[in-house]
Design brief:
The chain has 296 residues and is of the alpha/beta class. Helices cover 47% and strands 13% of the residues. The strands form two sheets. Strands 1-4-5-6-7-8-9-10 form an eight-stranded parallel β-barrel, surrounded by six helices. The protein has a two-stranded antiparallel ribbon with strand order 2-3. Helix 6 packs parallel to helix 7.
Amino acid sequence: MNKKYPSFAGAHTAIVTPFHNGQIDEATFVKLIEKQISAGIHGIVPIGTTGESPTLTHSEQLHVIELSVKTAAKRALVIAGTGSNSTAKTIEMTQKAEQLGADAALVVVPYYNKPSPEGRYQHFKAVADAVKIPIIPYDPPGRCGIELSVPVAARLAANCPNIVAIKDCCGSIEHVSELKAALPHDFQILSGDDIWTLPFLKVGGIGIISVASNFIPAEIVKLVALFQSGHLREAEEMHQRLAPFFRDLFIECNPVPIKTAMAARGMIIEEFRLPLVGLIPEHRKILLDTINSVGI
């Protein structure tokens, strides 16, 4: 591991953006971060998919990053979501996140315009060259319509010293194994889906950028720690108990289910920005019944 950059091992929370009457609920957001840190979470990831980044204005995005950095106060890493389908906009956002004190940037694979493998490589290289903080490519092919690809990841790792990790949402152990074979031994692979956390760890992943940890941060921290400390059976038992919850967090598009669960617990107000809306009644019942049945 390059000693110049932090380790991203452990559990990180892709934190929601709470709203109240159409505005960012700053007081609640601060409370959520404090709860995460108290539970031992290793990092806060604002302005990702779970943070409803597509519906936040540019100034709101920067404000949420700034608030995250100020609140975390070096007690946890802040990995700011800065990616878009425009390289110039991504560079600008990443540079501003760096200036605001973010420890790293999470940069999504360019979506909608579907660049070629060479375009994907040049996009991430340009972003990495423009800043000093570490860059974590975020690879969710189900949302982007394309994937980063193993050869592109390998080129980036070889040519960009500050690209040191990847958030992988491909949902394939084979894919993670291919990444491990192609990347430097100390390159860090993070699961981007809670249901894959333990399988990823078993084949060389180092942690999770979690949705579920918005609701159960201590449990996600413990799940990763159990595996890391060699308590595999206990980790497997915990995974099996929580698996129905992990599944139902995607009963509709993220972050609608996780915000619904949090609102039911009184953690936030249940409010979204269009085009996102609340769960249909059938799905709401399934999710809340699952929460009760798994005992969280």
